[in-house]
Design goal:
The protein is α/β, with parallel strands linked by helices. It folds into 2 domains: 6-285, Rossmann fold, CATH 3.40.50; 291-453, Alpha-Beta Plaits. The chain contains 16 helices and 16 strands. Strand 15 (429-435) and strand 16 (444-449) form a beta hairpin. Helix 2 packs parallel to helix 11 (262-270) and helix 12 (303-310) packs across helix 13. The two termini are 39 Å apart.
């Protein structure tokens, strides 16, 4: 059935526009929007494709327009977190949801964090895309937000100028995006007066004290790129550090990006691998982006002797079981196992976070020991080239060579990985000195991760 816009009345009588995409018996997810939201427009473009892909995987997603924005009631004075949490409550009640996943997008992250902290029994999973925890800090850091003050008392043509200028700055870090398209959404989703009232309130909203109260499994999607993306990444990292056990991953998304990282969110909520979109469906993501990655290489220690001792059939059966276990661990830590790399030849995975890569490697080491197939594990970070279902580059070769240096069950990392993770990974490192690696001109300094300091992810 084609999704359509419906309305639910919140606790203070405000009418909130919402829609439902997916089957009613699917895993429920409420989507708390960014300020730039308009369901009618987004159901025909922008987020519709991402929402539909999540629905196709078995998620029933319920996006809504923020009060005062989009197709929700416009004449709104109260933008407090309490009133916004009441909007989520009203939607959950309308849909008969006792427990649901909650996806907070940019400004929607504030109410999502607050709701998850106040209602841990109701939020099964929390996904936060480009989040921040202190509205005042975020407002003061993004120049175009303060520029709204110059519009006080100005006519509509200046509102058009403001939205175009704001949109141009936001999409400037995303080549190919059209600022006119985003500016059109901005103008249709709200008015200058409403936006000013909202920003007065948002500057008082600080959910940092609530971060430690969040008990739901949490996935945080941080933007990549320079410029404003660096600022956004800093705020996302602050949220990740504050929420116990939160997983932080860097994606290609940005503040103005119309595409959501739907596979990551769906896999996190469903707990399984989802179908990747075909190139014809989603050409810009048919292949993972080339660029910097943290690479993990795992190989069974002394596989030849184990094959002789166990027999080829028994060894391959154990190896297949371990391969499946390792790939599950990699997914749990928001990594990507490269297809076609099977145990015996090695398991190769890439991560956007050194912290997650180390946590995954330590878990993989335990899985190898438990399965009777101890692993050599090595990690390095550097530029990779992704083609189809494989990755290439000198950094991959270095990770494989470091893996070969490790003792069975030991995790060795390069100096590059240690530098990236030493302040956030919650582990200690023991220096193994500079090592000469076969085929690598310069020696590489390596460190062993101390297992007693291991984190769970």
């Amino acid at each position: 059935m084609e999704p359509h816009v419906q309305y639910v009345r919140s606790g203070d009588g405000t009418n909130i526009a919402y829609s439902v995409i997916g089957e009613r018996d699917g895993v429920p997810m409420i989507f708390a929007p960014n300020i730039w939201c308009h369901l009618e427009m987004q159901l025909t473009r922008d987020f519709r494709g991402a929402w539909q892909r999540m629905a196709d995987e078995g998620i029933m997603i319920a996006p809504y327009d923020m009060r005062g924005m989009g197709m929700s009631e416009r004449d709104v004075k109260d933008f407090s977190l309490d009133s916004q949490m009441a909007d989520i409550d009203a939607l959950a009640t309308r849909l008969s949801l006792d427990r649901f996943a909650l996806y907070g997008n940019v400004f929607g992250s504030l109410v999502s964090i607050a709701y998850a902290a106040h209602h841990p029994e109701r939020v099964s999973h929390l996904v936060l895309s480009i989040p921040f925890a202190n509205g005042g800090d975020f407002y003061r850091t993004v120049p175009t937000l303060q520029g709204l003050e110059t519009l006080r008392g100005m006519a509509d043509p200046h509102w058009e100028l403001y939205t175009f200028t704001h949109a141009s700055m936001l999409v400037g870090m995303q080549p190919g995006e059209d600022p006119k398209r985003l500016a059109d959404l901005m103008r249709k989703c709200t008015t200058p007066d409403t936006l000013r009232r909202y920003f007065v309130e948002v500057q008082t909203q600080d959910v940092r004290p609530l971060l430690t109260e969040v008990r739901s499994p949490t996935l945080i999607l941080s933007p990549s790129g320079g410029g404003l993306g660096v600022v956004q990444s800093r705020f996302a990292q602050e949220v990740a550090i504050g929420i116990p056990g939160a997983r932080l991953t860097t994606t290609g998304t940005g503040f103005a990006a119309p595409a959501l990282p739907d596979e990551l969110a769906a896999e996190f909520v469903l707990g399984r691998t989802v179908r990747r979109p075909l190139a014809a469906d989603h050409p810009e993501r048919a292949e993972g982006p080339s660029g910097t990655a943290v690479i993990m290489f795992a190989d069974i220690a002394d596989s030849t002797a184990l094959t002789e001792r166990l027999g080829d059939t028994a060894f391959r059966a154990k190896a297949r079981d371990l391969d499946a276990a390792l790939r599950a661990i990699i997914r749990e830590h928001v990594g990507t196992a490269v297809e076609g790399k099977l145990l015996g030849d090695g398991v190769l995975a890439v991560f956007t976070s050194a912290r997650q890569a180390i946590a995954a490697a330590l878990r993989c080491a335990k899985a190898g020991e438990a399965g009777g197939l101890p692993l050599h594990l090595g990690l390095h970070a550097g530029d990779v080239i992704r083609e189809e279902n494989n990755v290439y580059g000198g950094a991959v070769n270095i990770a494989a060579r470091i893996s070969g240096l490790s003792a069975p069950g030991e995790v060795l990392v390069s100096e590059t990985v240690r530098s990236l993770a030493r302040t956030s990974a919650g582990v200690t490192f023991e220096d193994r000195g500079e090592q000469s690696l076969k085929g690598i001109a310069e020696p590489v300094r390596v460190w062993v991760v101390a297992v007693e300091g291991a984190i769970s992810g």
